[in-house]
Write a structure and sequence with these properties.
Layout lengths: L7 E4 L3 H12 L4 E4 L3 H10 L16 E3 L2 H6 L3 E4 L3 H11 L8 E4 L12 H8 L4 E6 L4 H5 L4 E6 L3 H11 L4 E6 L2 H23 L4 H21 L10 H12 L4 H10 L4 H8 L5 H15 L4 H11 L4 H9 L15
Parallel strand pairs: 1-2, 1-4, 2-3, 4-5, 5-6, 7-8
Antiparallel strand pairs: 6-7
Helix pairs in contact: 4-5, 8-9, 8-10, 8-11, 8-13, 11-12, 13-14, 14-15
The structure holds NADPH dihydro-nicotinamide-adenine-dinucleotide phosphate (NDP) and 1,3-dihydroxyacetonephosphate.
1,3-dihydroxyacetonephosphate binds next to α8, α10 and α11.
């Protein structure tokens, strides 16, 4: 018996939105990608490429593009939102009049709203209270997926139908979709790892060795899970693809925009110039500020976040911050095994 494919809408014309829309269309789902820029929509309709954010990749011939929000989301069973965190709430508010009660909304955005410390699923819950919600996160560098290199992702939702529908829409021989119910943990993992990608990029620019890189990555995992537990997430989620998986990918790859920002900072470039040159989203800089504020408020020990904050916003030399971290006394290796006194 054939099961009908979900109709899909993807909000966001960036590299990740494009890759996910393309996967759904390639899987036989009627898919519309919404972009705010009508000129780019016309170009994409004509060329079936996204030359601004995903140059060099042909998109599936059935993938439709639109700058009309009502038309894009109105008929969809499943709506993916891939809008940077700074504009996420606004776009959801704009889409709200056209959303139907049974639709499934899935955030793909790895960021934290400035000022409110809201994650994107919380924004969806506030703005569309009756929606069926999920979060998609994992080691998903857009260009690798566009090149059909095998990858896995995580759909986190309490709704089993939603998890199955996302699997049906996206899973294919080069893309596996794993399931989780810890929405908050999966989402926090995706947001927090961007901070540590900046730290590793900075360290790589300073030509550190593999021991240093491994220490940084492992202590990053300790720090992010310590913070997440304080906020009610399950620390075991950090052992999954959305946690250690994405941390490893983003901290290792020059394809990561956050890693690129860190590398450029570590090479002595100015933050404003780096952001201007990037022309794409790097959520980590905002996330450092939001997490630093929240960690101070909650009294959570986050030396890497504090160190990055000092380097980026208080102009402290990288070498001084690194030396301070190395001299900060004995701590537990795995604090869920040996708690810190
Ligand atoms: N790229 C990746 O590898 C991955 C990214 N993500 C996450 O997905 C999210 C989106 O990232 P990505 O696709 O890479 O983003 P990009 O930086 O590639 O593109 C950003 C997109 O958002 C659009 N946008 C920005 N502001 C608005 C607004 N106010 N209204 C409507 N559209 C807007 C931009 O449109 P315009 O061109 O008109 O400015 C552009 O289409 C981020 O949170 C990122 O962390 C998650 C996994 C992988
Ligand atoms: O989240 C990503 C890969 O999983 C993409 O990371 P960047 O946003 O740093 O490019």
């Amino acid at each position: 018996m054939s099961v009908s494919k979900p109709r899909v809408a993807v909000l966001g014309g960036g590299s990740f939105g494009t890759v996910i829309a393309n996967l759904a269309a390639s899987n036989g789902c009627h898919t519309t990608q919404w972009l705010r820029d009508a000129e780019l929509v016309a170009e994409m309709q004509a060329t079936h490429q996204n030359t601004r954010y995903l140059k060099g990749f042909d998109l599936h011939p059935t993938l439709a593009f639109s700058s009309d929000l009502a038309q894009s989301v109105g008929q969809a069973d499943l709506v993916f939102v891939a809008i940077p965190s700074k504009a996420f709430r606004q776009v959801v508010q704009n889409a709200k009049p056209y959303l139907q009660t049974k639709q499934m909304l899935v955030s793909m955005t790895k960021g934290i709203e400035a000022g409110t410390f809201s994650l994107m699923s919380q924004i969806l819950r506030e703005e569309v209270p009756n929606a069926r919600l999920g979060v998609l996160s994992g080691p998903n560098l857009a260009k690798e997926i566009a090149a059909k290199m095998p990858a896995g992702t995580v759909i986190a939702s309490l709704d089993p139908d939603l998890r199955a529908t996302v699997h049906q829409a996206l899973a294919c021989p080069y893309f596996r979709v794993f399931a989780n119910t810890d929405i908050y943990g999966v989402e926090l993992s995706g947001a927090l790892k961007n901070i540590y990608a900046i730290a590793t990029g900075m360290a790589q620019a300073n030509k550190v060795g593999e021991n240093t890189r491994s220490m940084l990555l492992t202590r990053a995992l300790a720090e992010m899970s310590r913070f997440a537990v304080q906020l009610g997430a399950n620390p075991l989620t950090f052992l999954g693809l959305a946690g250690v998986g994405d941390l490893f990918a983003t901290c290792s790859s020059p394809l990561s925009r956050n890693y690129q920002v860190g590398f450029a900072l570590g090479s002595g470039k100015k933050l404003a110039d780096i952001i201007a040159d990037l022309e794409q989203t790097a959520e980590g800089i905002n996330t450092i500020q939001q997490v630093k504020q929240q960690a101070d408020k909650l009294g959570v020990y986050m030396p890497i976040v504090s160190g990055l904050y000092d380097i980026i916003f208080n102009e402290q030399p990288i070498i001084d911050v690194a030396a301070k971290m190395m001299n900060s006394g004995q701590r537990s290796d795995v604090e869920f095994v040996l708690p810190n006194r």
